Fold this protein.
Amino acid sequence: MLRNTYLTREGYESLRKELEYLKNIRRREISQQIAEARAHGDLSENAEYDAAKEAMALLQTKVNQLESKLSRARILEKEEIATDKVSLGSTVHLRDLSRNRELQYMLVSEEEADFAQRKISVSAPVGQGLLGCKPGEVVDIKVPAGILKYQIVKISR
């Protein structure tokens, strides 16, 4: 049984736009590559044709995955996100007690995780370690590089 995919509105729109691009633009580009390669003649030894067909198959796989995620998507509205404890969709303001610096992460599903944007997955070690914590709590989180020691400063939407 497939489970729901929990996404922020921003994450949902991002996936929807990616799907639209793949279906309406990228598919057309690859179809054109297939047609051009086919025009070169003998398909049995045509590496361009094989590569374009493989690219189309990979594209269709990606399209199918995105359609599946979007069909199972449940959008997390800001009003639904609790601020009394860390949960999916929370923005967590932390103090790294080892380095004495402030950090901020948003906890999201695996589909939306992007460390460069400070969005971490609830299934990642740090995300798992923060889930359920309340403001003021100090938490030790085991990661491959060692132990992270954070204090929850604030939780917001």
About this structure: The chain is about 40% helix and 25% strand. The radius of gyration is 22 Å.
